[in-house]
Hints:
Blueprint: E1 4-8, H1 10-17, H2 22-34, E2 38-39, E3 44-49, E4 55-67, E5 70-82, E6 93-100, E7 107-112, H3 114-132, E8 139-143, H4 147-159, E9 165-169, H5 173-186, E10 191-194, H6 198-203, E11 207-210, E12 229-232, H7 240-244, E13 248-251, H8 254-258, H9 264-270, E14 274-275, H10 283-287, E15 292-293, E16 296-297, H11 298-303, E17 316-318, H12 324-341, E18 345-348
Parallel strand pairs: 1-7, 8-9, 8-11, 9-10, 11-12, 12-17, 13-16, 13-17, 14-15
Antiparallel strand pairs: 1-18, 2-4, 3-4, 4-5, 5-6, 6-7
Helix pairs in contact: 1-12, 2-3, 2-12, 3-4, 4-5
Amino acid sequence: xxxxxxxxxxxxxxxxxxxxxxxxxxxRVLRRHAEGRVELPAEGxxxxxxxxxxxxRSLAMLGAVEVDGGPPLRGMKLxxxxxxxxxxxxxxxAGLAMLFDPDTARPRVLAExxxxxxTRTAGYTMVSLRHLGPERWDAAAFLGCGTLARVHVGLLxxxxxxxxxxxxxxxxxxxxxxxADWIRERHPHFTxxxxxxxxxxxxxxxxxxxxxxxxxxxxxxxWLSPGTFVAHVSLAxxxxxxxxEAQGVFVDDVALVADxxxxxxxxxxxxxxxxxxxxxxxxxADRGSPARPLSGTLGQVLxxxxxxxxxxxxxxxxxxxxxxxxxxxxxxxxxxxxxRLGLGRxxxxx
Length: 350
């Protein structure tokens, strides 16, 4: 008996995504997550240092999403990254995503995951911005100008046509200029400005998106004007006071963020300085200092379980962990499009 699967390379993934409403798919899965209709096992994490002394990691993320009228979508994403990749002209992260056959448990779809994962992340940012962002805005600032920022800008252009200005900053000025040129060519309705520093970029727009590889915080609350929305997409850009002084702080999954030792917000939650309603033995609890409550998850906002908070007197922070169920749900939509369009290649395993 032979075994086969459908392989979707990046070209096929991009062609399929052109026929997918990314924000609608992300919203659907977030609702199911808030309703308890997903399975989200713990993430597998393997770090190391390469021959250049750069941080590398491998993430293995499994998930299942209930589907109305059919078996759940089950799958996984394996996404690896090295912080030294961009300096060699490579994207920082790359990997593979899979869907499993519901009856045989065999992988039935294998897809290039780098662009798919970035699209999932950008889709989450757009949905959070739609529900938690300022009432009126026309400019966004991106800190970090790699592939993730590029995917964000592309989705921003179609999701928020009222946005007219994009401000960019990267520690590598060449990378910022390259992204600026790409935006001017692909999305000429945007006015693009490369800023000389992160603080200037933050001050230039009421929507701030961090898409960096920073492993140390640098962005304090003092940089954030009242009315600013921050999509804290990357790991460690915000300093603790940016969370503690926020008007609202939202996550995608409370347990995933709280239990992650690499995230600033997770550390604040474990210390009891931000509470999620779970018991804590952290230092803040020991000394009796007041804790700032977490505002909830974006899924809870979408289902009406928690109220949306838009930035007015202060700023609002969206800090997602990155849930595998969103990748699985989005890959399910991509697979549906591939089936309709006849895209992809059939590979024989044996």
